[in-house]
Amino acid sequence: MKTFTCLGMGLLAAFAGWTSSTAAAGSFAARTQVVEDGPQRRMIVLTDMEADQDDAQSLVRLMLYANEVDIEGLVATTSTHMRHELHPETIRRILDAYAKVQPNLIKHDRRYPAAAKIFGLISTGQPDYGMAAIGTGKDTSGSNAIVRALESPDPRPLWVTVWGGPNTLAQALLTLKAIHSAAETSRLLAKLRVATISDQDDSGAWIRRTFPNLFYVVSPGEYGRATAASRRTYTGARVSLWRWRDDFQNDFAARIGWTTLPYEKANHPPLVRLAGPDRLTVHSDEVFTLSAEGTTDPDGDSLSYLWFNYTEAGTLKAAIPTIGAENIFHMSFKAPAVSKPETAHFILRVTDKGAPPLTRYKRVVVTILPN
Predict the structure, then answer these.
(1) pTM to 2 decimal places
(2) What is the pLDDT of residues 310-323, one digit of tens each?
(3) Is 352 helix (H, G, I), strand (E, B) or coil?
(4) How many other C-beta atoms lie within 10 A of the C-beta of residue 237?
(5) What is the pLDDT of residues 285-304, one digit of tens each?
(6) Co-location of 28 and 158 in the same domain
(7) Buried-most residue among 119, 167, 176, 216 (CB within 10 A)?
(8) How far is CA 255 from the centre of its chain?
(9) Burial of 24 from C-beta contacts in 10 A (0-12 / 13-18 / 19+)
(10) Which residue segment(s) compose the domain that 298 sits in?
(11) Is-contact 355 266, C-beta < 8 A?
């Protein structure tokens, strides 16, 4: 249970851009399939399904992004809001709906997995609340799924997104520690990435104390609003997604269309290309130019370009302004004078003129050296 959709964790990577595996944009071949074939992020979801309606909404959203991630498990769990119930049947009901639209989704992206594969990934976690439900001999199909995924020779990191209570993850970690040496446990846990919606049972704090080196993202404390209607500038931990939300909501809307529309009637995101490397080194007072020459749109839509210095990332906090006209595929910047090496991140936002308008991003990291 939470006030912001659970799927926000880990899926902004979906806006990184697609790579054409067929012909140039504008041809009929390109308009029938334009996808990215690179490695996908591995993902296991722990969900307190039926504690509230939000996890059902998030699972619907996740399945519309199942082409962007490698789902390895959907685990029904408890939480502080539902301490003694598990509802895998709700997961199955949502997947029944996915099975009906998956044949149309693959017209837009062939990477959407078959429903039968995802049905086979459903499991249940600890049947009761928190730490009282973990211990020797308390392994569940859900905790075993996490253990198997970590023991897999797959070198990719494993993301475990926790929409409810994390005690099934706690059980998996307890089992790993019991069956492997300390060195092997550390090696396996180095692949694990955990992102949780607050602490929805008492096992989260135990995990962080017991495994202090674990990659673990959490925002402990009370729930807060994740939306606000205003043109003001906002700061704070709970507003980090607001800058991007119009774009990812439009993206979601387009994918809903993909469930029923033929390819030629739907909108698809632009294919953003950088003409140069995504990491540069320059010196103080040097003018440098970034270019997106070669960027196209699979539907033949015209494109708008926005370049900006992303000051929240990098070490240089003073904004570097653009030089020249806006809304153009290339942009120049002048590196400020620095007394020590600094990094500045630049974002390219490309939006098409389709309905709904779709956006993709690229990032360039520039290291600025003193003269």
Answers:
(1) 0.85
(2) 998 999 999 999 99
(3) strand
(4) 8
(5) 999 999 999 999 999 999 99
(6) yes
(7) 167
(8) 16
(9) exposed
(10) 270-369
(11) no
Q: Examine residue 61 and state whether it is found in any structural domain, yes or no.
A: yes
Residue 205 and residue 280 in one domain: no
How close are the terminal C-alpha atoms of the chain, in Å? 53
Contact 206, 173 (CB under 8 A): no
Span 11-55, pLDDT tens digits: 433 333 333 333 333 333 345 555 666 789 999 999 999 999 999
Which residues are bridge partners to 330 per DSSP? Answer: 291
Q: Which residues pair with 45 in a beta bridge?
A: 74, 161
- Whole-number pLDDT of residue 36: 60
Of the three residues 196, 217, 238, the one that is the final residue of a domain is 217
| Closest C-alpha to 350, from 275, 294, 271 | 271
Picking from 276, 324, 333, 273, the residue whose alpha carbon sits closest to that of residue 303 is 273
* 1 in any annotated domain: no
pLDDT, tens only, 252-269? 999 999 999 999 999 999
Sorted by sequence, the CB contacts under 8 Å of residue 207 that are 6+ apart come out as: 166, 169, 170, 173, 194, 214, 216
Strand partners, 342: 368
Number of domains in the chain: 2
Q: How far apart are CA 241 and CA 174, in angstroms?
A: 34
Task: Give the domain-ending residue among 179, 196, 217.
Answer: 217
Q: How many CB atoms lie within 10 A of CB 74?
A: 26
